[in-house]
Design a protein that fits this description.
Elements (H helix, E strand, L loop, with lengths): L1 E5 L6 H15 L4 E3 L3 H4 L5 H14 L2 E8 L9 H5 L5 H14 L4 E5 L22 H21 L3 E5 L6 H11 L4 E6 L10 H8 L3 E5 L2 E7 L2 E7 L8 H11 L4 E4 L16 E3 L4 H5 L6 H20 L5 H5 L15 H22 L7 H6 L1
Parallel strand pairs: 1-2, 1-10, 2-3, 3-4, 4-5, 5-6, 6-7
Antiparallel strand pairs: 8-9, 9-11
Amino acid sequence: MKLGIDSIKLPEAKKRGPLASLDHVKELGLGGIFFSTALDMSPDLDSGLLREIRAKADDLGLYLESGIGKINPYCSAEEPALRAAGGGDIIAGFTRMIEASASIGCHELWVAPGNFKGEYRGRLANDRFRTDVTWEEQLLGIEKVLRKLAPVARANGTHVNIETHDEITSFEILRLIEKVGADCVGVVFDTANGLQRGEHPVFAAKRLAPYIRQTHIKDAYVGRAPGGLDFQTRPVGGGIVDFATILPILADANPTLNLSLEVAQSVADKPRKPNPRQCIEIDDPIWRAGHPDLTADELAAYMAMVDAYEKRVASGAVLDWEAYESSCYGYPTYEVQSYGFDEAIAFIRQSARHVETVCAEKGVALSVPEKKQKAA
């Protein structure tokens, strides 16, 4: 296994461009980079540039992963670059990305089933609870897109991997894999997103393990709050996710799986307006009715996990929501935002140290970049 990073959350990735970002990843002592889509490597899918990126990643000993974007047809209008890649034909755009990625050896490709909009509070922040179209209709649309892409994926020896994104459950992903085929559809396991669907991360890891082909390694604060539960991104090891249990599960299922950190994005890269607190409306009847697969046993384990985490918060071992929000690590709500380049780098380093420590303690084989080996 190698430990790398999602390019969107790598500070200055857009400013530096893909080639210089590879150097930055190497400087940070990480093992690879996960470009969300092939368009993030080359907006026009230039074959020469893509080959150059591949060659440089290989020279640096870095893994290179990619994706094709959002495949929910009901949110396609919010991602115009995907349609533009196909000259107006979004399926052609996806096809071009699959073929271009395969040409440089990227056969595991990320897709996401919807959008998350943090400016809205509660369930309306994600597409699962859109009021113009039901989630069931969206899942059917996603399935139809996957079926259209399946022959292209199979022809290129590729898996289209569905992220455990903010709006979808692990149960729904498994049903999509069953319908379309595990030979061309897999999973990008985000270790924290399932918390927003009331899923226990360990339970979800066990359910999905045979199909996990890419990852987003992320942690979060989850605690009781008015209206349900607060959700707040934290450095890996500082949140509620039990990586000491999850990482061995992932390694047993796929010993060469790449672990890609997804950290809090620097405000220097993406300025943010003050956002409302992200609320998991876990006690709301509409929210609960929207999660028919969530069992009483898993919900009980989930709430026990929340109780245990709240004890850590009460002891002072973990900052509460407000204290963290006002610190340099948080997403500050005040106008002068302090979470910039240096803070994002510190977030990455802290997260990487925790993953490396857990892997060492649990006997999980993690490839250590040459630079780190020399430092040791």
